[in-house]
Design a protein that fits this description.
It is a single chain. The chain is an alpha+beta fold and 273 residues long. It has 2 domains: 19-122, Alpha-Beta Plaits (2-Layer Sandwich), CATH 3.30.70.580; 125-263, Alpha-Beta Plaits (2-Layer Sandwich). 21% of the residues lie in helices and 28% in strands. It contains 5 helices and 10 strands, in the order E-H-E-E-H-E-E-E-H-E-E-E-H-H-E. Strands 1, 2, 3, 4, 5, 6, 7, 8, 9 and 10 form a 10-stranded mixed beta sheet that branches. Helix 1 packs across helix 2, helix 3 (155-165) crosses helix 4 (218-230) and helix 3 runs parallel beside helix 5. The protein is globular. The model is unreliable at 1-12 (pLDDT under 50).
Amino acid sequence: MAERTPFRGKHERSAPYGTLALTVSYNGAAFAGFARQPQQETVQGALEVALSTLFRREVDIAVAGRTDSGVHALGQVVSIDLVSDEEPDLRALLRSLGGLCSPDIAVTQIRRAVPGFSARFDARAREYRYRVVSGPAAPVFLAPYAWWVKRPLDLEAMRQAAEILVGEHDFASFCVADSAIGKPTRRNVTRIEVTSTCEFGEQVVMVRIEGNAFLHSMVRVIVGSLVDVGTGRKPIAWMAEVLAARERAVAGPTAPAHGLTLWRVDYPDDAWL
């Protein structure tokens, strides 16, 4: 059998002793976002403390999709590089992480990836889902995971406005303005679906967005703008004007963080051993 060469993604780095990829779920309400911050409870901080305890060394993780404070995740992926003498039992590692992590974090899967794999740079696509509950009655069970909009929503109008955003565009209007200074803002959104479904007996509008990568708060600004169309505050054609303007002030509001979930991250099939 031919020896496998180190995986080379967009980042051109190598981890000759192998890499582990962890699929992580969490309730974002408990954390000040994913990224490590001094004096703040974060997902990265909690995971790195648990992993450092188990590996008995300092562990740094790479991640696909650094979520903001209050944003949830179902299928986020992080990666860690192994050192020469480490051959962890993945089942035991999964059980141990379950005991060490906060109850608001669950590591649901651990896979061996080819050396040099990066959860961040080798991701091909990310999917986010946003829940909106509309109508005069506030949600009960979905309240921690959905934005309550009191006015009714025209889903067909939202779908037509969403179609304008599908494809490769400059999404400068749909991100935190300061985060885009001096950085490329073109992204490829491959799908936006607006559907009505029922969860825990409550009716919810689900906005599903897939793309190669996303800018800071991009999904939440897209949803806020779609809701402006759905409530009749803005016409469908306005979405094209927002896209062309490339100015954050032209777009709709940033939807609340608690309605957003990072659903899954896709990778090439040959990333796994």
